[in-house]
Each structure stands twice: as structure tokens, then as C-alpha cells.
Amino acid sequence: MRSRRFLMAAALAAAFVPGSAAAEDLKGHWSLAAQGGTDLELSGDVHTGGAGTVLSLPTSVEARSWSDVYDPGFRGQLEVGYGVGPASEAFLRGSYYKMKSGTLQVGTVAGLALNADFAEYKERGAELGYRYYFRSGKPLKLYVAALAGLRFVSELPATFSVPAAGVVLSDVPFYDSSTVGVFGADLGLTFDLGKRVALGLETGPRYQTGLSDLEGLAGTGLEKINDTGSRWSMPIVATIRFRF
Hints:
By secondary structure, this protein is mainly β. It has a single domain (2-243), classed as Porin. It contains two helices and 17 strands. The strands form three sheets. Strands 1, 6, 7, 10, 11, 14, 15, 16 and 17 form a nine-stranded antiparallel β-sheet that branches. The chain is elongated, with a radius of gyration of 22 Å. It starts with a helix and ends with a strand. Residues 6-23 have low confidence and may be disordered.
């Protein structure tokens, strides 16, 4: 938490610090960057709605989005870049992200509240991309990037409960551990503290493909509510970059 706050504060302060010499021509040079921040959930459902029976009782489930189910978590990333032109570079990025869920109502069973607790979401990923800088000769510059990669998402079971009836269904299989595709773009602002060090802020949309569903609700009529799991999100990260 402290390191994330430090990176965010340093990146914001950088825009107001008088700059030294701008970074040199990128072509043929390597870079190493550390990034920290979080994701904003834009769209996508953890599960859709449906109707069926649980314990022989009429059950109704309402759709719940990723932002309904999970609180924003911590994203950490490490990146290696290589200059392929005077103002452009290719990069390989590794990432880690996790977020936690609290108890929330997802529907009713015979008119009684049906609650769910989803397991902690964890992902590890790798992205390959291309970045282009505008005003490349200036200390303060903008850049855009396009990227694609894979994410490896942990298994996501769920515990369902009907508190008024004292009923708990623990660790119901919901999503299997999944390998999913990710596609996106970056928009960033970077400030050169010198020829070798830069600070910045970065954001951009990400689309993550659907998760591998499990049949933990087989026989209830609710089997299709987890035939989803894709998400649109917006990472926001602070960056410190070293060039050599």
C-alpha cells in the first residue's frame, strides 16, 4: 500500500518538477519499468440472472456485475521494453492482480434472501505490445500503445446461503481456473527526470474473455447463469521507468 501511494504521489508531482535533459533516441535501447495501481471495472457480469429451484424451493437470481461483486484491488506490473524506432518501443509486461468480494444478496429462495460469497479473484498475466511517444524530444510527453496477451485466473468457487433458513451451500464450483485472452490499449503521460529515469501515469481499456464455467448448479435450472465471466476494465497505474 505504501509503495503504491508513493508511486502515485511521485508521478503526480513529476509534472510540476523542472525537467532535466529529455531521454535520447529510443532505438536500440532497453527499458525496465515497475507499475502499481488498480483496476476500474467498466462492464461485464460475474453471473447473469435466472430462475430455478434450490432444495426444491423456487429460486430467483439477479445478474451481478464485476463491480457489484468485487472491490478494486491492487495491480502490480513489471515491464521490459526495447526501442524499435526513435519514438517507439516494443514491450513485454508481466502482471499480477487480486481483488476481494464481500457478502451480497444475489436473489431469493422462496421469498427469502439468497446471499453469495465469491472467492478472492487472483490473476497473473503476460502482455506483448507496441508503444509510440508524441513530443519524443521533450521531457513531458504523451504516448499510446496497443497490446494483447494472456491472463491466468484462479478458480472461483462461491458459497451460497439463506440466512433466514439457516441454509449454507459451501464452496459451490462456479468458475474453474482459466486461461483467458486480454486485448487493450494504453494512454500515458511520462516525465523524464533525466536521460535514464522517468515517472508517469497510465490508463487504458482492457477486454478480458470469458472464464471457464463449472456445473456446480447442475439440476437447479440455474446452470446457465455462469456462462459468462468476460469483463471490460480500466487499469490505472503509476510508473517508474529506467532506460539503458
